[in-house]
Structure formats: structure tokens, C-alpha cells
């Protein structure tokens, strides 16, 4: 854990008691802050109380008694409307920050020279974060990895000059980290996403830009127009910018976990980060070849039925699903869930790669119309389990080459599952059920 010693003696309100919120309260208490935690969920408040954490109703008393409000990233800051805790903090003139900001302040206080890599982008950030950590470990570095990728940043070991933190940052987290200043900041790509939380694409892009604006080295993708413009602005402002692309020369033939053209951009970004931190190219290449990959992100599920089963549950939008479709020539495609703006229209150029589509969840009817308009065979199955059974039967009857069943939903999971991880586990279990393990 990273104790928030830079908040010692300060009164801090914390709203949102999920995983990162609880970690934040523990960090503040350990650092000597006077914390008061709360949540709209009685169960979450009860869990915090059971741990002996300081809990109090933030709606009671004068909010101006606090120095800071630490907001969990899942709590609305601006859209669709600010949460009531945000309104109270603003009215009292209290700063609103998140756990990434606490880490940044702690780093400046205890180890300002400590290496800190922060990674964002609409797609690819989790793979890039995990691959960066893996390569740096291959180089013998003491690596702490977390943030949006799973382990709350304040649960990681504290910053030190002998340690490097590799942290995935969502737009929600960046929005709550006004002084974010990594040694190396990575902004991979931008496409439409999370507009329900940021209002417009312009706001979303501006928030993402904050991560690289104060970086010692800014690694920015050049495969979309918004990112290209961002790189140009930062160069003009004197920031050290390294541009990366899917088209960069990089050999991933020995890296089975990095299949697909999109991973060339991820690997190029990792190479730029590692070079900036003094890692030689031979070590970087070794790291690529030994990288095991991430669950639910183009993850191959081993079976003995002759079918290649790909779990890409992390593909929560069309842009991410495009990367998966582009990686295979002929696929039996399982998709659907809670649709994002634009549906799957952007994927039409990849429809010739689809032998048959199997639709699940809330998006099934709308997606069936898009597929039918482009002569893609489809079936509405409703659930992952039924879709896997149907895809298995069809793939076994395929006559050309090794069949691929691709679960790349192009949708959020919230209509049927808590998150993409739970959805991916449901797919894995369904595959094991039809293949015998």
C-alpha cells in the first residue's frame, strides 16, 4: 500500500466505496489524514464499517470542513449530471480529485525522481500496460502495475527511486488528476467512447490529452486524426513527443499473444517507453516473445477440438472489435450486449471475413438488421451459452482450414453481466462445456 503521507492532518471526504475507494480510504488513514467515507450503497458503507474504516454521511454538516473530496472514478463528475457530492464540494469551494492525483502528490513528496509510466487511449491500453510491465521486469526493474487494469494505484507499493510504476488510466481517472505528470505518458489512440460521461468528443479528447501534456516524454499514436493533432500541439508547446503507429517496423512473429495489426501499435508504444527508460532493444524483443497476454483480450482458449476459440470480451466498442476481426480471415463471430453509439456500422468493411454471426443481448435485433443489409448470415441466440453451442456446431462443419470462433462483442456488458471480465469468464465456461474442457 502507498500511505498518503502528503495528506497528513488534512480532512478528506471520500465518496464511492468500491475497490479503489476502499483502497483510497486505507491509504489516507495510513498516511495520517482525517478521512470520512461514504457511498449511496448501504452495503458498501457496511463493508467499510466492517473494516473499521471511518464512515460518515457526507450530506450532514458543512462540506467546507473538508480540504478535499476524493471521488471514485465511477461516480459522475460532470455528465450526465454531477453527483450530489460533487455539487456540495463545488458549492463549498472544495477541490475534487481522485486516487491517481493522490499518488502523483505522494510521488512528488517522497520520490520525485521515481519513474512513473501512465498509459491511456480508447483501445489497447490494458495490453500496452501489461506488456510494458512485462518488458521492464525482463530488464530487471522493480515494477508495480495497476490503476484501471485491476489493482488500485494506492494498493501498490509506494514510489521510490528504485521502482517504476506502470499505471493504466481511464478518462474518468484522468479527469480527477489535475497534476498528472508521468515520466513517460502514453496516449495510444482516440475514437468515440464514454460520451455519456464526458458529453462531447472534444471534451473526451481534451481529458485524454492531459495525461501526456505534462509528461517528460509523450508517446502518442499517429493512426487517427485527433491523436495526430494532439501530437502537433504538444510538440509546438515544447513537449518531447515520440510518435508511434501500427505501421512501425516491428517483428512480432515470435509473439503469439500479440497477434493482429493493432498490437503493432501497442508494441511500438512499449518499445518507445522502454527505450525512454534505458532498456536495450534485445531485452525489449525478448519481452515481446515471452509475454503471456491478458485474459479477455484476444485470448486464445486452449481446446482439443481443432477450433481456435478467441475470448475478446474486452472489445466493448466497434473500434476494438475491428482489431479482432482484422486478425482473422474467416470467423464465426459472437457479438452483442449493450450497444454503443453507432452500433457496428463501422465494421462493415470487415463483414466479408465473417462466415456467420451469432447475436446476444440487448443489441441483437439492431445488429441483425445491419448484418442482413450486407448479406452476412446471422442468428439471434440471446445468450453466450447458446451462441457457443451454435458456433461450435457450425465451425466443426467448416471445410476450409482451421476454423476460428471469435467472441468480440463490440458492446458493453452491462445488459447481462457486471463487467467484461464476468462476461469473458462466461464465454470461457461455455467453451469448456461444449469442448469437454
Describe this entry's structure for a reader.
The structure is a single chain. The protein is of the alpha/beta class. The chain folds into 3 domains: 5-97, NAD(P)-binding Rossmann-like Domain (Rossmann fold), CATH 3.40.50.720; 103-290, Mur-like, catalytic domain (UDP-N-acetylmuramoyl-L-alanine:D-glutamate ligase); 299-435, Protein-Tyrosine Phosphatase, Chain A, CATH 3.90.190.20. 37% of the residues lie in helices and 19% in strands. The chain contains 15 helices and 18 strands. It has a 6-stranded parallel β-sheet with strand order 6-7-5-8-9-10, sandwiched between helices. The protein is globular. The mean pLDDT is 95.
Q: What distinguishing features does this structure have?
A:
single chain, 437 residues, alpha/beta, Rossmann fold, Protein-Tyrosine Phosphatase, Chain A, six-stranded parallel beta sheet, six-stranded mixed beta sheet, 15 helices
Counted beta strands: 18
Corresponding CATH superfamily of the largest domain: Mur-like, catalytic domain
Helix content: 25-40%
What count of structural domains?
3
H/I helix tally: 15
Shape by Cα distribution: globular
Integer average pLDDT: 95
Give the low-pLDDT segments. Answer: none
CATH architecture of the largest domain: 3-Layer(aba) Sandwich
Strand order of the largest sheet: 6-7-5-8-9-10
Strand content: 15-25%
Largest sheet: 6 strands, parallel
Radius of gyration: 22 Å
Backbone structural class: alpha/beta
Gap between N and C termini:
38 Å
Catalytic activity: UDP-N-acetyl-alpha-D-muramoyl-L-alanine + D-glutamate + ATP = UDP-N-acetyl-alpha-D-muramoyl-L-alanyl-D-glutamate + ADP + phosphate + H(+)
Subcellular location: Cytoplasm
Binding site for ATP: 121-127
InterPro entries: Folylpolyglutamate_synth_CS, Mur-like_cat_sf, Mur_ligase_C, Mur_ligase_C_dom_sf, Mur_ligase_cen, MurD
Amino acid at each position: 500500500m502507498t500511505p498518503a503521507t502528503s495528506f497528513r492532518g488534512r480532512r478528506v471526504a471520500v465518496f464511492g466505496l468500491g475497490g479503489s475507494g476502499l483502497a483510497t480510504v486505507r491509504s489516507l488513514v495510513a498516511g495520517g489524514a482525517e478521512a470520512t467515507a461514504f457511498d449511496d450503497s448501504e452495503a458498501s458503507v457496511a463493508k467499510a464499517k466492517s473494516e473499521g474504516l471511518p464512515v460518515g454521511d457526507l450530506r450532514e454538516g458543512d462540506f467546507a470542513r473538508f480540504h478535499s473530496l476524493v471521488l471514485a472514478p465511477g461516480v459522475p463528475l460532470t455528465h450526465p449530471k454531477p453527483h450530489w457530492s460533487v455539487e456540495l464540494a463545488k458549492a463549498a469551494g472544495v477541490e475534487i480529485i481522485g486516487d491517481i492525483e493522490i499518488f502523483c502528490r505522494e510521488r512528488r513528496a517522497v520520490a520525485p525522481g521515481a519513474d512513473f509510466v501512465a498509459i491511456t487511449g480508447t483501445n489497447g491500453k490494458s495490453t500496452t500496460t501489461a506488456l510494458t510491465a512485462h518488458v521492464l521486469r525482463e530488464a530487471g526493474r522493480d515494477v508495480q502495475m495497476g490503476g484501471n487494469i485491476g489493482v488500485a494505484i494506492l494498493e501498490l507499493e509506494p514510489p521510490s527511486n528504485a521502482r517504476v510504476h506502470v499505471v493504466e488510466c481511464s478518462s474518468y481517472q484522468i479527469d480527477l488528476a489535475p497534476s498528472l505528470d508521468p515520466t513517460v505518458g502514453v496516449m495510444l489512440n482516440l475514437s468515440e467512447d464514454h460520451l455519456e460521461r464526458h458529453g462531447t468528443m472534444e471534451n473526451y479528447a481534451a481529458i485524454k490529452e492531459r495525461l501526456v501534456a505534462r509528461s517528460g516524454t509523450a508517446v502518442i499514436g499517429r493512426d487517427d486524426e485527433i491523436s495526430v493533432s494532439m501530437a502537433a500541439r504538444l510538440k509546438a508547446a515544447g513537449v518531447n513527443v515520440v510518435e508511434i503507429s501500427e505501421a512501425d517496423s516491428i517483428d512480432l512473429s515470435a509473439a503469439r499473444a500479440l497477434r493482429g495489426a493493432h498490437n503493432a501499435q501497442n508494441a511500438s508504444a512499449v518499445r518507445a517507453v522502454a527505450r525512454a527508460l534505458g532498456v536495450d532493444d534485445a531485452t525489449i524483443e525478448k519481452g515481446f516473445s515471452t509475454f503471456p497476454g491478458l485474459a479477455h483480450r484476444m485470448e486464445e482458449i486452449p481446446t482439443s477440438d481443432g477450433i481456435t476459440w478467441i475470448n475478446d470480451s474486452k472489445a466493448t466498442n466497434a473500434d476494438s472489435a475491428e482489431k479482432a476481426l482484422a486478425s482473422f480471415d474467416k470467423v464465426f463471430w459472437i457479438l452483442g450486449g449493450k450497444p454503443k453509439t453507432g452500433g457496428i456500422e463501422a465494421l462493415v468493411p470487415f463483414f466479408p471475413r465473417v462466415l456467420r454471426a451469432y447475436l446476444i443481448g440487448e443489441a441483437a435485433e439492431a445488429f441483425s438488421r445491419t448484418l442482413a443489409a450486407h448479406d452476412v448470415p446471422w442468428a439471434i441466440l440471446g445468450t453466450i451459452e447458446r451462441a457457443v453451442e451454435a458456433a461450435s456446431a457450425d465451425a466443426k462443419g467448416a471445410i476450409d482450414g482451421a476454423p476460428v470462433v471469435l467472441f468480440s462483442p463490440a458492446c458493453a456488458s452491462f445488459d447481462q453481466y457486471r463487467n467484461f471480465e464476468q462476461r469473458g469468464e462466461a464465454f470461457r465456461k461455455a467453451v469448456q462445456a461444449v469442448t469437454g474442457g
